[in-house]
Structures are given as C-alpha cells and as structure tokens.
Amino acid sequence: MPDLGHAEALMLALLNTAPVIDGVRRDELADTEGAQAWLAAQGWPASGNPARALREARDALKSVIVGTAGPASLAPFLTDVRATPVITDDGLKWTLDAASDNSVAVHAILAWDKLNTTNPGRLRPCSNPDCELFLIDRSKANNARWCSMAVCGNRMKARRHYQRSRQA
Ligand SMILES: [Zn+2]
C-alpha cells in the first residue's frame, strides 16, 4: 500500500483518466483492459474487472470537488475499510484493508481529505472550459490555473491573443 504522497498522485491520476483530446472525451477506464493497464501504470495490483468501480469512484470524487455533490456521496466507497496500526522503528504506520474493488477509491478519498485539511482549495479543475482535467496547485501564490501550462495554458493564451487581435 502506498504512503499518502503516493496516494495523492494516485488520486490526481484517477481524476484525470478522462481527458478531452481534440474535443473528444477519452476514458482510460472505459473497459477492463484499459482499467488494468491504468492500474499497472500506477504500480497497483490489478485483478478482476476494476473498470466500473474505478469509474464510479472517479466520477463521485469529481462531483464532490466541483461541488455538485456533497462529501456524504463518498460514503459507499468507505464501507468495510479497516486501518491497522503497525509499530516500527520509524514510528507508527497504518495499514489499510479495503475490499480490493475499492482500494484505489479509499486511497484517493484519503488523499483528497488530507489535501483538503493541509492545503485547502489547492485541488481544482483546470480553468480551460474545454478541459476536464484537475490540478493540484503547488505554487506559492496559489494562482495556478491550468492542468498543464504547455497544453491548456498556451492554448488559452493563444485564444485570448486571437480574440484581442480580432477586436483591434
Ligand atoms: Zn487543462
């Protein structure tokens, strides 16, 4: 099981599994093959058919982040989860036991909650209205707007420049 830093990366990766590319929404978790490949890329054990559980967790978390659903809607992913304390030379570590279908969801929700507590408002959707990706703002000024400066940042700048030059 990953530590929370890794869980944060996992959460962001999960949120960003349905990018819009050239106006077409592509869902990496659309089928079993895609979902298993995605899990493998995250270094997560893949078995059975995780696609549906992953999609449900992703969509529920997205709705909570953008405010169209309350946090209580995440409750179904958190049933039958147990944390076991293990004492080591480095201190206390918690091991999570969750039904394997929900283990990614549980870690993603924990990471989301931790981020809300330690860095509230830092997880947000990309400001490009045509983009469906999320970002975690790590800038000092807390003013990052794009999932990627290289993609959405430049695209939106170019669009504003085009609009300005048309108006001029
Ligand atoms: Zn974007």
TrEMBL record:
Xref: Pfam families: ABATE, zf-CGNR
Cleavable signal peptide: none
InterPro entries associated with the record: ABATE, ABATE_dom_sf, Znf_CGNR
Domain Zinc finger CGNR: 122-164
Stated name of the protein: Zinc finger CGNR domain-containing protein
Species, as recorded: Kibdelosporangium aridum
